[in-house]
Amino acid sequence: MRVWIVEIGEPLPIDAGSRELRCGILTDRLAAAGHEVLWWAATFDHNRKVHRFPESTTLAIKPGLTIRLLHAPAYKRNLSLARIQHNRAIARTFAAEAAQHSTPDLIFCCMPTPELAERCVEIGLRRGVPVIVDVNDIWPESYLSNLPKPLKPAARILLRREFARTRWTFRNATAVTAVSESFLGWALSHAGRGRTPADAVFPLGYPTPSAVAEPELSARIDRLCTAHAIGRDNLIASFVGTFGVSYDLETAVGAAALLAREDHAPIQFVLAGDGDKRPALTTRAGNLPNVTFPGWLSKDEIQTLLQISDIGLAPYALSATQSMPYKPYEYMSAGLPIVSSLPGELEALLSAENIGIQYQAGNAGSLRDAIAYLAANPEERAAMGRRARALFDRRFDAAIVYSGLIEHLERIASAGIVASAPASRAQAAASTP
């Protein structure tokens, strides 16, 4: 089948040292299964905040996989007017170019962004193509997450058109997939309908780490530890990701400060990545001897870091809107116990499977206690890690997750199901979120 994948925020195969995420894995496996894939992406690198190309560009990645990178103005902050303008420009360009392409058999579009998802559904209705909207985050609710509570009602009114756009999109999509049960429920509540067999949850998952033979592994570890002052004999608690508003890395630094004053075996926090918060975080950490900021790491360096780590940190802010994000699966794949502040489905999973510890978001003492417990109980820490890896192998290996997703998409395409009796814009605007 001919498939359009529409997603503009992930790393691309052309990005040096990048890791495959949801659409990267999906497009690769669709092409390997013999399908013809066109991935609509962006020239702008969302993570590094730089343009890959100065204009729209088409890349033939390999047989069966082409990427069309659409150009739009840059933005510096993820939550900003400039980003909204970027998303709208991409959506306009996509709609114009899509009109010139032959009709695909299926469109798989990620939410976010709402603007692109809306255009995909419009195309699907007009051309009789099934459109699956895949929920990775809850927009426009995410716009409200970091506002003070008294301002949220007014902001919701100002965003009423965005909420109407989201409701119309979900009501008229052929089906909804999501990375978690709570996200699927959120989407169906906006659609105003119950769940059908075409609606399903497929977790983000993560690829099984590739084996690295000795002595290459030892050489990689030596290079990483030397370059970033990581103590081989320390208990290492690692975070890998973007330093954005969803992550409460300030509390991680606070917990490190508490632990630095205590008399026990050395515990080192390795906070790998970059983003808006990095200057303030490095200032906050000051001269703490147990906090290291190695910056962006390549895929191989990340794998090496996790191999020498003892704990995977998932420090989400109180305002975070994620439900089951990438980070826990990545840590599970490395056999690490997870220390997390994210409530809901992830907290329930950690408890049910006994693969980590929950702490209170924003509470440095709570995080300190979780880390200190795992440091003082090495056998339990190792057992949690083993259970985490076993759970990953059973349920969250990308080979399992994305084989299931591809079979699901094939069934929808072969059934020829498309949305019917589209809801009007007025109906969507009039209904409540």
Q: What does the model show?
A:
This protein is α/β, with parallel strands linked by helices and 433 residues long. It folds into 2 domains: 237 residues, Rossmann fold, CATH 3.40.50; 181 residues, Rossmann fold (3-Layer(aba) Sandwich), CATH 3.40.50.2000. It has 17 helices and 16 strands. An 8-stranded mixed β-sheet has the order 5-6-2-1-7-8-9-10, sandwiched between helices. Strands 13-12-11-14-15-16 form a 6-stranded parallel β-sheet, with helices on both faces. α6 crosses α7. It is globular.
Q: Quick gist of this model?
A:
The protein has 433 residues and is of the alpha/beta class. Helices cover 45% and strands 18% of the residues.
CATH superfamily of the largest domain: Glycogen Phosphorylase B
CATH class of the largest domain: Alpha Beta
Strand order of the largest sheet: 5-6-2-1-7-8-9-10
Instruction: Compute the average pLDDT.
Output: 91
Number of domains: 2
Number of alpha- plus pi-helical segments: 17
The rounded distance between the terminal residues' Cα atoms is 35 Å
Structural class: alpha/beta
- What is the level-2 CATH architecture name of the largest domain? 3-Layer(aba) Sandwich
Indicate the percent of residues in helices. Answer: 40-55%
Portion in strands: 15-25%
Q: What is the CATH topology descriptor of the largest domain? A: Rossmann fold
- Residue stretches low in confidence (pLDDT < 50, at least 5 long) are none
Computed CA radius of gyration, to the nearest angstrom? 22 Å
What's the β-strand tally? 16
How many strands, which pairing sense, and closed or not: the largest β-sheet?
8 strands, mixed
Shape: globular
